[in-house]
Specification:
Length: 391
């Protein structure tokens, strides 16, 4: 069984291993003098050393900065990473990522464009809010790469009713001007039709994949990881560079574009983005492979929107599927099904980019606080007891 100490070590190493190479790449591509480079590199190394040292003494801080006591509970064995040597992926244009990073200053630690929100994670991943990126520069850099973005969505049982609004608003706001392949998983393929008077732009395609209907909505939710994994292996890895997995019972309200592209991308849950860590809705039962003890974790991520490079998303869904199946064998179901397992995976495998709640809002929260400048993608109000048949 994995111990808390080994879990802590894996967290520290995963953050450092991702941050330092990115900083080094940025420095080598910059126009700074050798002395400036050495001074900045020394400062970064000092910050990392302090962070790693403090994480040995403390359990860390929550997103709002409160110290938490080191837990002593053991962590159950869980598949937190996967290696798939037999599969190949379309190459991701690294220069695109570096160029966006340099030109937009979207993750510059010392000079954040927004002072009212957190714009960078402790492991130096950018947090994308309105005002932290330049859409013109990002669009120009991205279009030149001719990338293809796969987008998966599940329209099963009564959720098929939301598909037309999803597709119509996606055509208006989602990755406009870029090549997008939509993969619609449904038990009713004959019901999948484009909205009246809507024509998809050039380079944008709709693919329908039939899946079974299950008697429990929780089972449909959990099976999502299996179907995405299998579709990546059979099709998406040949057809796209990035893949994003989103919910269908939502509408796009404003731009969701190339600023969300990254190797591994997660979205802050709109209900909990201001909460202290011990109030996050993690799975707290240590019998589950999704278990995260009190005092651990960085943010609480939404299960309705995640993505990144095809290979990275394949690792995530493969690990989550394995953990879901392991839980099922012992008769346990994580608190929020696959969302709980996504959060567990991202505690160890830090996302390289985090999206603000602008990118997954809930209409029940109203227009949001002063920090929410735009609502880009939001849930549709509905009667959950009517839509989810077995509640």
């Amino acid at each position: 069984m994995q111990t808390s100490d080994s879990f802590n070590k894996s967290l520290r190493l995963s953050g450092a291993n991702r941050s330092l190479p990115l900083v080094l790449h940025y420095l080598t591509q910059s126009n700074m003098s050798k002395r400036q480079v050495l001074l900045l590199l020394g400062a970064v190394l000092l910050c990392l050393s302090c962070f790693l040292f403090s994480s040995q003494r403390l359990s860390g801080t929550s997103a709002v900065g409160n110290l938490i006591t080191q837990p002593t509970e053991p962590i159950p064995e869980s598949v937190d990473s996967t290696v798939v040597p037999t599969l190949t992926w379309r190459p991701i244009p690294e220069r695109l990522v570096v160029k966006i990073w340099q030109d937009t200053q979207q993750a510059k630690i010392m000079q954040p464009r927004r002072q009212d929100v957190l714009t960078v994670t402790p492991w130096l991943a950018p947090i994308v809010w309105d005002g932290t990126f330049d859409p013109v520069i990002i669009d120009e850099a991205t279009k030149a790469q001719n990338i293809v973005i796969a987008t998966t969505v599940f329209a099963v049982a009564k959720y098929i009713r939301y598909l037309q609004d999803f597709l119509e608003t996606a055509e208006q706001h989602y990755m406009v001007g870029l090549a997008v392949n939509f993969y619609v998983f449904t038990d009713q393929p004959d019901a999948v039709v484009l909205p009246i008077n809507m024509t998809m732009a050039a380079g944008r395609q709709l693919h329908v994949i039939k899946v079974p209907k299950y008697s429990r909505w929780q089972e449909i939710s959990m099976r999502r990881m299996q179907f995405i994994q299998e579709t990546i292996e059979k099709r998406i890895r040949y057809e796209a560079d990035y893949v994003y997995c989103v919910d269908v019972d939502m509408k796009f309200h404003s731009r969701v574009g190339a600023e969300i592209l990254g190797r591994l991308v997660a979205v802050l849950n709109p209900w909990l983005h201001k909460s202290e860590r011990n109030n996050f809705s993690y799975e707290r039962r240590n019998a589950s492979t999704a278990y995260i003890p009190y005092g651990k974790g960085d943010f609480y991520y939404a299960g309705g929107f995640f993505g990144g490079a095809v290979g990275e998303v394949h690792k995530l869904v493969t690990a989550c599927r394995a953990n879901l199946e392991a839980d099922k064998l012992v008769g346990i179901e994580a608190k929020w099904q696959e969302e709980s397992h996504v959060n567990r995976y991202l505690v160890v495998n830090k996302p390289t980019k985090v999206l603000s709640p602008e990118y997954l809002w809930d209409e029940e929260l109203g227009t949001g606080g002063s920090e929410i400048k735009f609502i880009r993608y939001a849930t549709i109000r509905k009667n959950m007891k009517e839509v989810r048949e077995n509640i």
